[in-house]
Write a structure and sequence with these properties.
mainly beta; Jelly Rolls
Amino acid sequence: MAKEFQERYKVDLLNFDSTGATTVNISRYYDMAGYRRADVLIAARTLPANASTGIQSQYSAQLYLATSATGGGQTALSSATVIAGKGATVNITATAVCNELFLRWNTAEYETTVMTLTIGTAAFLSSSAASAAMMYACAGASANATVASEGFKTMFNSTTLNTSTVLTENWIAVNPHSSSTKAADPVVRIVRKNADSTHTLLFTSDGNTHIQYGMGLTMHLGVDAQHLPDGKRYIACGVHSSDVAQPYSAMLLRERVNAPIGAVSVTKDINKSKTISASTSK
């Protein structure tokens, strides 16, 4: 199956930009000769590094066409444009629900004003020392950001401290990366317990600037070769984020015309591919 996939599709990494840009970043151009369709998959996250701005971002992606691999006669394919994310300064509302939520605390010490986060209909409060349900400790000095994020994660996942059964039954707060510890990490990622569920989240803050929030997102652009204008068989993708430069990756899949099934693949389009076609248990 892995061989059949490589014979059917040519896969290229258009861009992996860990910084991003607020102006359009156009990839290299790829030839559509011998391919019947092109699809671009984009993965990104809106979470500015500075937790004091309250600024959100949205991504825009568009396909571009050219007459040569160097971009000659470049034009945008206006019908192949996609926008995703949250282009506003406050909250994730019903018009921009998210499949996962990122929260980042900054290093400000606890203040007398209580910070309020509302996820769905459940309100969570910061406290100098967590003493009741729906409260998390946000006290400390230099390590306050990591203390607060760790305290929030523990509280959110507790069926005793988090009294919202809708949240505890369907969502879980996890580490944002693959590290086995939450220490020294000011970010919490809230994801579905069942990755295939259709639950979405709303998010509201009280306007404080001590917590930044964002969402993960995926986008797709696709076009059949038959719809490309005559003479413009080279294709590229341009991506940018609004307000704040955000990281993203973009991958191009081109489906070959008359791909041979079962023949030996000559071109290695993927660095490594593997498909489990039978049980490996003994």
